[in-house]
Amino acid sequence: MNRPADRTEVEPPDLDTVQRDVDHALSRRIELPPRSVIDAGTDALVQHLTRFMDYDYGHDEQESGGIAVRTLYRVAERNLDVPVRPTPLTSHRAAYTYWHTVATLTSAFRDLYLTHRRHEDQETSA
């Protein structure tokens, strides 16, 4: 899906940092981490997710890949919508679940980004 040029990210994301933040959110735990850890992790992942969403993947609206990408964008935008995002009044468990959701969406966009980059590299080398 194409985003407006003024929102398109120029620098590639730091994939090591993205992976570390996703792994941190999705790691198995015996108990919930402190709310401050959840909130900081969520903020970092929202930044990564937004950055991936700003990238121009160049999918045509009519391509089957374009439909999948559009759907992924809709799900991500719905989850980034302000009324859905946790507030200080949100329960600890709901904030934790949201952190997981954003981590999963970030991971999906990271995979889309990597696939797109590989495709671009193949076209460039051909």
Write the layout of secondary structure elements.
Blueprint: H1 15-26, H2 35-54, H3 64-80, H4 92-125
Helix pairs in contact: 1-2, 1-4, 2-4, 3-4
Could you characterize the architecture of this molecule?
The chain has helices at 15-26, 35-54, 64-80, 92-125. With 126 residues, the chain is mostly helical.
The level of helicity is 55-70%
Task: Report the major sheet.
Answer: none
Report the uncertain regions: 1-5
Task: Report Rg.
Answer: 16 Å
H/E series, N to C? HHHH
- Helical segment tally? 4
Summarize the structure.
By secondary structure, the chain is mainly alpha-helical. Helix content is 66%, strand content 0%.
Task: Give short descriptive properties of this protein.
126 residues, mainly alpha, 4 helices, 66% helix, disordered N terminus
